[in-house]
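Re: the multi-chain job from yesterday

Posting the exact lines I submitted so nobody has to dig through the queue logs.
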Amino acid sequence: MQDDSVLLNVENLVKYFPVRRGIVIQRHVADVKAVDDISFFIRKGETLGMVGESGCGKTTAARTILQLYRPTSGVVEFEGTDLAVTKGKELRLMRRKMQMIFQDPYGSLNPRMNCGNIIGEPLIVHKITSGRGEYRDRVAELLTTVGLSPYMASRFPHEFSGGQRQRIGVARALAVRPSFIACDEPVSALDVSIQAQLVNLLEELQAQFDLTYLFVAHDLSVVRHISDRIVVMYLGKIAEIANRDELYENPLHPYTKALISAVPIPDPLVEAQRERIVLTGDVPSPLRPPAGCVFHPRCPIAVDDCAGVHSEGLSNERGVPELREVSPDHWVSCIRV
Amino acid sequence: MAKLLEVKDLATYFFTPEGVVKAVDGITYDLEEGEILGLVGESGCGKSVSALSLMRLIQNPGRNVAGSVMFNGQDLLTLEDEDMRHIRGKDMSMIFQEPMTSLNPVLTIGRQLTEALQLHLGMDKEAAENRAGELLLMVGIPEGDRRLRDYPHQFSGGMRQRVMIAMALSCNPKMLIADEPTTALDVTIQAQILELVQRLGRELGTAVLIITHNLGVVARYADRVNVMYAGKIIERGTSREIYGNPRHPYTIGLLASVPRLDEPRKEQLDPIEGLPPDLIALPAGCAFRARCRFAIDKCATEIPPLVEVSEGHTAACWVSDQLGAQARS
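And the result, structure tokens for all chains:
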């Protein structure tokens, strides 16, 4: 653990999903290496952004941290407790402190429950309120907090728009007064004009309730806006970690550079002058990640050593680049940096 | 350049039990030969329905209720079904948002690609297969000519979208409609696909209509942009004008609400408050009024027409003159 200000510390976290073949006798034939040995920490009160393309393991990482998936190996230390070895009742108590907001505002709310019961369910599960009156007041308070009206409690999810549904998801996460919320692509399913409303809401709530966020998204411009520090993931591994401004002004990993240059900017004059790094090829399958640096087959600056040759201090014995701190708080895993 | 497509007062309504949904409510625009035109708007603004209307692919309970679509000198809306079939997929083709669901999963890529070639161009099987192989190579699928026997699930999302593009361009169409071609794809793949569409459009002289909700996407590629809101076009101009000098409060709001990578970080985003209106019960007057910061009394009663604010730049707003003056000062 670095110091007191760290709320969540993730060390060598690994999550493999086994692939099995056979009907009666199931043989374990391979692993999908969704999250493959990642380490980072989140400080109290900050927002850590996590970006990467689909399939890079960012959602799995968030879910594994909350123990919605149990990690294959590694340590997830939350306020000093290792969640990876915490079970049952103890884990349930820890869950009161950490909540999640999901990507899909349509799939993440039970269509048969009304909005009040959706928000109130955590209150009952965790036995937070006693008595009908207190329960109702708390639900009404939560609805107001996220910008909805208490009378909406009796409505069902289909009566709300996408942005309003996502607000319900936020209210549900806030119900147990958590200190940490993992937001998994909370705005990507929303329209542009509504996205900004929700991003502002999340920032207001953070200030109001002293929240710490893990903000998972693929949209770099939104992540830059909301985050203090940013983790860039590629194929189950961390490519780069840096402070927000440092990452955008001085990206070091070739993948981060490509990712930033690929984001379109709504201004034709700026666009015409931008140099764009267009990556060739697709993200490889996490079933068979490339040897050495996982990015080397698509990397514009790759050299022979990137394909799995051990270099002292830069990569491990399998030639996988180490995540090194190249300047204070700026970590990168690339032997060419 | 000559006009390839002229859409006039096109209206498409859906007659549902809850009421009439005015998805597209009188839009007029044109497309020049070889041009890339952007159509921008949020979900439910009618941008996809307007494209499907051009192709006459609107299904019950939807119907074209008014307007004309002049394409190559013919009004597509009054054509016989049989004649329309000869145009669809040949002179005018379309790529869809979801490369996962718009290919048939049980037919090989080769079979799906050769269908149009045999049907529209009268090629025999062998010629069609050779051409299909060339097409896959043209859209940048590695060893594409050897992948004709593969099924869609053997391709990644980006590759499937390339197959879609190959299919759409197979009969050298005069016009390609790309409905959210990159929404389902990752950023690094998005860039590849858009570069491809732009390059092929230029090489083959195909006009492209790009429909998207992402303002960034069209900025780089479109020559002109139409902005839609609640079934109407509310602003139109060259990309440079629309992005540099927006004159409709909605366009201004949209541009302000997205964080930009090339600008210093703002303390707070500037969202457009409220929600888009219900298309069944549109308010009187301007549909954007309830969310508009600049609304005046007139906006509640009279629908603003699309009027020219500068050369080649039109906006449908009663106060667009003041917005321009404000922007300049």
